[in-house]
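To fix ideas at the outset, we first show an illustrative case, written as a sequence plus integers encoding its fold:
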Amino acid sequence: MEGSEDLKALCIFEDDRFSNFFPLTLNKPVFDLLIGTQTLMERIRADVEHESVCMICRPYLTDTIKEIYEGGEEEGDPVVNGPSGAETLFVNGRLLAYADELSNLASELGLNEILKKNGIPVIARLDTEQSAAFVEYLLSALSNEKVEKVIIGMKNATGENCLDELGSGYHEGLESWAGSNGVKVRDTNVKLLSFYWQLIVENGPCIEDDFSKYPLRGAAPESALYRGVDLINEEDILIGESVEVRSGTVLDASSGPIIIADGAVIEPNAIIYGPCYIGKLTIIRGGAKIGKGTSIGEQCRIGGEVGESVIAGYSNKQHEGFLGHSYIGSWVNIGAGTANSDLKNNYGKIKAWCAGAIRNTGRRFFGLVCGDHSKIAINTRINTGSVIGFNANVFYTGYPPKFVPSFTWKIEPEFEVYELDKALETAGIMMDRRDVELTEAGSELFRVLFRFSRLAGHNL
């Protein structure tokens, strides 16, 4: 990067399209979503040299984000929603770059210059003074008042155009801001993720891209491959430390790499097809079939059949049942025998809830999106293009509705509110089972989201 010796800080920011990733981003920034083997933010950080990192996100997420990242690689507490106090490279948290695309983009960027796409800032390199001003500009689209406007707008949202109407729209003033601050603006055609279903589509390629950047191959010396394990295309398999791969397991990397992180356990007779990522301390149950394009986060318990899906950390799908072309948040429990459809009988394009309204995804394969802390009862049959909100409890005699709102306890004959105190109690118990504390900041986030769900009137 030109003048990279002067670059001290990297700032990763949200923009006003956060609601297009609800319910997955109700309780986390867009850049904290898992794709491939890491979060979007981790992908960006891996591609750009920096001495410190700061984050710009919705203010109600500030306390929980600070808890997550405190005690990290940088000295001191993480900077959240504040300037770095140095020359800064700003990167949009929705940016999805492959190979050397991001590093090349950054190296070509001049000081006090912004690259935009459709009026939205993508990447910028700004001096100390302009960085502080740009942070204020970015936060103007993410204030609690703007967020509440979006939430309330979902209550009566209809039609696909509402997605644009609900946006806070700060990007419309980017040229004006840049002109007033002496900052040059240019266009770029890099990829910005726009909707949650793109996370599913891009997951397999992200696993392959991540694997290509790993320096190591093969199994770590401390891992244990039991007798009878079959490795296909072994040069594209990476097995971390203290991993157990037990007898009868097949790791088939003939169509893409397989990455198994430290401490994972693959029980007997499982079949895993690459590209695939298995996170730290995760257990893949005996006889499971994990299809290509799948990422499973840390400390999950996964059985049955899973294909082309993302399951974030600390979630359970322990038993038989099919999960396909889906994105499952953290702290989710999927009951035994539950299965989803990911293809319509007429092979048509699938519509799904997005930002308060029903939108055509343009996808023929799309199963389920489920927000954090939700629970799905045994033997639940889930239709194509279904969305389950944050902290919902789903049990239904037939097919549940294709959209289940956040903080609902039962669905039939009508939605019933999942009371906040009971929701917090359940979340605390589940998290304690993984030795994770539900902190006061985490509890306060539940309270905020509970209030948002009431504002949206069963449309969040």
In short: The chain has eleven helices and 40 strands. The longest strand covers residues 120-126. The domain at 200-456 is CATH 2.160.10.10 (UDP N-Acetylglucosamine Acyltransferase; domain 1). Residues 1-5, 161-168 have pLDDT under 50 and may be disordered.
